[in-house]
Amino acid sequence: MRAALFLSIAAMVMASCTTSPDRDTPTRAVVADSTLPPMKVFANARPRPPVMSNSDIAGDFMALHFQLESGRSLETFTRFEGPITVRVTGAPPASLDADLHRLLLRLRKEAGIDIRQAHSGTANITIEAIPRDEIRRSLPLAACFVVPNVSSLAEFRRDRRKSKTNWALLEKRERLAIFVPNDTSPQEVRDCLHEELAQALGPLNDLYRLSDSVFNDDNVHRVLTGFDMLILRTTYAPELRTGMSRADVAAQLPRILARYNPNGSGKPRVGVEPTPRVWINAVQTALGPGASPNARRAAADTALITAQEHGWTDHRRAFSHYMVGRLAQVTDPELAEKHYVSAMYYLDRTPRTEVQQAYIITQTAALDISRGDPARALARLNPAIETAAQSENAALLSTLMLLKAEALELLGRPDQARAVRLDSLGWARYGFGADWAVKQKMREISALNPLKRSDGQI
Disulfide: which of 132, 193, 310, 456 matches 181 by Cβ 3.0-4.6 Å? Predict the structure, then answer.
């Protein structure tokens, strides 16, 4: 299940970010001025192979397949057996078909899965596109989700209390449904397709310890990574089959991974510590709905203390510092910056954390711009922009580009600033969706520029 946006690190990009349109009624002139450049889309995936040892990957594979997000253990291995069909129902947005087509191509090419789209009749996997409110009426904390043994939301609602829809009781995979929103940004719909289809095919768990995967509730990665494709390829290896026990699967993994990931065979095991529930609960309180500002700050502090007590030096330690920094940025920007520096310290020492670093750079570059230091902001932004493009994160990419445009204006390079800003808008339309959301993001970032502020506040 992909967590709702309020659980996403991406939802905390700018201090003044909101998620509702302007309440003022637009005049005809404003409406006429709302035309934006065409939406841009990513043409080619650029996944990178995992860098961990096969021994570590085997441990991750077992945790992803034999445990649910609740912590409940599963006794048997399940996957689809034979060719897999996928059908779209409901009222899909215009962007869904092309993004699904690209995803299915990747699954066939990179994971070796025999999966095709069906345009009529029944299918193994049904993707139903429905309004967000319908999803949240069923699961309030979900942006999208997947359920076994149903083909529609109506069927799920009718049978949600029955054993057939209980993942813990699943013995085989033949028919599943994925529910995605049809009234949000194209990027959010695509993100849901990637994570939910991957979990429909294989892993059911999410692990905060994974730094380079969509199977992580921090929602940093938006499309399936090289690690994710290896997990899926291993899931559909001929040595494995539905009904195998934990021990039987574990016994086959060394040979399978040696074949699919030979570069990981000679590397030593690192053995990352599992994430304790106290840290997970603290993160969900700090970033989730319903908590007061004081409760959020206390929860972020608890997460950081937990990370320190466990001696973590990986992305989870960095994420803890990032949360504390984000919650302090409005009232104490100097304290926030110290935590961002600490977060970058740990990320620099953790492989494949460039995307996490790019998110932090949105904050540090914003501070640079607001203080009138565009050269420093620009030095941070350029590599982060390439990272955002490589990871196919249009919302992050457009935010970084808009920040770059403000830095260029402060440096007295208005023509370059206009070109970068114009280029960013096509990505913003994919990442943020509606015109009002794109324009609101533009206003937020423009307000950081000290030449455009009258009160010195964001």
Answer: 132
Q: For residue 187, give both structure tokens.
A: 């990027």
Q: For the whole prediction, is pTM greater than 0.70?
A: yes
Q: What CATH number is associated with residue 286?
A: 1.25.40.10
Q: By C-alpha distance, which of 18, 196, 20 is closest to 96?
A: 196
Task: Please write down the HEC assignment for all residues of 66-126.
Answer: CECCCCCECCECCCCCCCEEEEEEECCCCCHHHHHHHHHHHHHHHCCCCEEECCCCCCCEE
Q: Residue 55 sits in which domain range?
A: 2-15+44-264
In this structure, the answer to whether residues 115 and 234 fall within a common structural domain is yes
Residue 314: per-residue pLDDT: 96
Do residues 298 and 411 both lie within one domain?
yes
Residue 368's φ and ψ, nearest 5 degrees, are -60, -45
CA distances to 52, 53, 263, 360, 453 from 267, in Å: 7, 5, 8, 30, 53
Q: Please give the Cα distance from 253 to 268 (Å, whole number).
A: 16
What are the residue ranges of helices labelled H in 204-292?
A: 226-235, 246-260, 277-287
Q: How many domains does the chain have?
A: 2
Q: Residues of the chain whose pLDDT is less than 50? A: 5-34, 454-458
CB 316 within 8 A of CB 207: no
Q: Which residues of 351-383 are buried (b: 16+ CB within 10 A; e: fewer)?
A: ebbbbbbbbbbbbbbbbbbbeeebeebbebbee
Pairwise CA distance, residues 127 & 136, whole Å: 16
Q: Are strands 115-117 and 84-90 parallel, antiparallel or unpaired?
A: parallel
Position 8 scores a pLDDT of: 41
d(CA 17, CA 68): 33
